[in-house]
Structures are given as C-alpha cells and as structure tokens.
Design brief:
Blueprint (H helix, E strand, L loop, with lengths): L1 H25 L42 E6 L5 E5 L2 E4 L3 E2 L2 E6 L3 E6 L2 E6 L11
Antiparallel strand pairs: 1-2, 2-3, 4-5, 5-6, 6-7
Length: about 130
C-alpha cells in the first residue's frame, strides 16, 4: 500500500511541475503578426472594419483615392450590393459625398460630389473583365 501512496505523490508532484512549466510558456508574450505582402489580410472581415485610408468609412470619402472597393454581393433575387470601405451599399445609396450609381460583377460606377468614376475590383490580368 505504501508504494501506491508514494507513487501517487510522485505523479501529483510531476503533474504540478508540468503545469507550472506550461503556464510559464503560455505567458511569455510571444505573438504572431501576419504579413500581407500588399494583399488583403484574410483574417480581417470585409465588412465592419474601417479602411486604412479613411478612418470614417464611407463618410470620410472626399476623393476617388479614399475609395476601397472590397467586393460585390448578389442576393438570391439578383439584387446587388457593393462593399466600399467596409460598408455595404446598394445602387442609389447616397452617403456623404458618395453616390452608388450602378454595380456590376467587377466594376462599380460611383459619383463623388459632381465627378463620376468607375472602380474595378479586379483588373483584366486576373481573367475577369469589367462591364
């Protein structure tokens, strides 16, 4: 019987030592930073995150350089929405100086103030043509 008691004490001491070592490893503060190499970070959601260029989402758009075209969604009924600077907009939406005039598969036609622009999601080199 004494052997089992001594063995149990030894196992408990070893388990405590392992747990102590693991807690030290977990609190070292080592962190990992994703390097996007110029591409979109796949770990950041497309919607709800303000763009790097404009901290105010679509309300901060003053010029075409402030526009970040992030994607197009198509609903089952065929209605399209566009994601610009983390905001989901539909054709005809007006937010601040920005107006969404039309939405295609690869291109969105927008108006900023009195100027009209076409912004593409992908260039032709990727095999997707604009409208």
């Amino acid at each position: 019987m004494k052997r089992n008691s001594a063995g149990s004490v030894f196992l408990c001491a070893m388990a405590a030592a392992v747990l102590a070592c693991m807690s030290c490893l977990c609190t070292t503060g080592v962190s990992y930073a994703y390097s996007s190499a110029g591409r979109r970070d796949p770990f950041v959601p497309l919607v709800g995150v303000s763009s790097e260029r404009s901290g105010e989402g679509v309300w901060g758009i003053l010029t075409i350089d402030d526009v970040v075209f992030q994607g197009v969604t198509v609903e089952p009924d065929g209605a399209r929405s566009v994601i610009i600077n983390g905001e989901v907009l539909r054709e005809g939406d007006e937010v601040g100086r920005l107006t969404v005039e039309s939405i295609g598969d690869n291109v969105v036609k927008i108006k900023i103030g009195d100027e009209r622009f076409e912004k593409k999601l992908y260039e032709k080199e990727y095999g997707i043509s604009g409208e």
